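Researcher: Re-running this chain for the archive, since the previous output was lost when a drive failed. Same request as before.
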Amino acid sequence: MATSESHDGLPRPKFDEPVKLLIAVAPFYRDIADNLLAGARAEIDAAGGSFETVEVPGALELPAAIGMAGRMRDFDGFVALGCVIRGETTHYETVCNDSSRALTLLGLQGLCIGNGILTVENREQAEVRADPAAQNKGGGAAAAALHLVALARKWGSPRSGVGFQTGPAPAAAGHQSKGTSTS
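Model: Regenerated structure tokens:
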């Protein structure tokens, strides 16, 4: 059973320019997915953002859809929503671990993703976590994506030439290239 423990959260970020998110939903448990979606939409609306919604068959397809959208469309961030309820086989661990790992890898590549895939033992836990009037995990996932978008905008556009580079050797020690610092 879910506890009534309180958690600290960050204040909702503010944006000078509108934010557009993709909400990717796996509606395997339709009522739970609808509650997660309601929470996410309300959070994005409250931040003044806009969103598109796409449905995929299950939690394992969420990272693929987000990865495709990250390469092919112009979204500032992404929200992954779904629910995995433990069953009698090890399929639960596979789906939970692989979907989470894939979203993390996409995030490490620079996508701003809020992970709202519930991984629970039973339906009751899922219902409480998905309910916008209770734990509101859909809203929390949208808030996480919005915070990452705010960080990305704060830090500016991606730097080019990160990692191994080919081409001319770097400037000699003691000399600085334009825009670099030794501090």
